[in-house]
Every structure is written in C-alpha cells, then in structure tokens.
Specification:
With about 150 residues, this protein is an all-alpha fold. It is built from 8 helices and no strands.
Length: about 150
Amino acid sequence: MHKYLEYFEKIVGNETKEKELKNIVSETMEKIRRHCPEEFYCAMYKVHCLAYGPHFDEELAKKAVSAMRNVDGTTGEHWSMEKTNPLAEQNGIKEKADFYYTMNMLYSDFSDVLGSEASTYVKMAKAYMHDPDAPEGKVFDIWLAQMKRVDK
C-alpha cells in the first residue's frame, strides 16, 4: 500500500472521493478516540490549530463557558458574545472567542473579588490574554489542560 499522502494527492480534486475520504477519516478518528484517547486528542489539537490557530472558535468557546460554575452560584455565561465582541473590537483584540471565554472565566472565578463592572474585566482579560511571558494560545491551551484533568 502507498503512504497516506500519496493517496490523498490522488483524491484531492475529486469531490466524490474527497467526501468518501472525509467519512473514512472521521470513522477512523472515532475508533482512535475510543482506543487511544491521547493520540486522538493530540491529533484533534493539531487539526483545530490548522483551522483556528491555538485559539477558541465561537462554538467551542460557548461550550466551554456554558460548563462554568460561577462563584456567585450561577452557571454559564455572564456576558454574551454579542456583549463581548464589541468590547474586544474597542480594545484591539482580534481573538474574539478567546476574549469571550476569558471575560466569562474571570467573572466565574473572581466576581466575588472583582465585582461586576465590565470595564474591570475588560482590562483583566486583555492583560491575561496578552501576558508577555506566555505563548500565543495561552487561553485555549490552559483550558485544554484543565479539561484533561477533569477527564481523568
């Protein structure tokens, strides 16, 4: 048999074959997820980064935020994306899904200390996201690390 890339190069450009390849890879990834979860998550992280960089996309950010248990006894988002997106734009933040997640994470964990003033959370989120000691993707990578601990 040929190497996967040789097959891939033969298939690309043929819409019918590309669709079948997607099905084959998807089914195979599900088997890997069940039998080799570490390999699965490593591969999926690489695929996610190809699509979005080391950042949240809107759907995953909303999923992550919806699972938050807030110190004020509520769950989920305090600020919607409709509220955080303009704040991100006003503050020159291009990773809007990361900003949405960070604003809500900070509220979830620290509202009993920081209060409820949105401008405080904007400053904190911007500082957290642009930490000069941290690599790009800090927000997403820390969330992933927390999820790995939860899964164990």
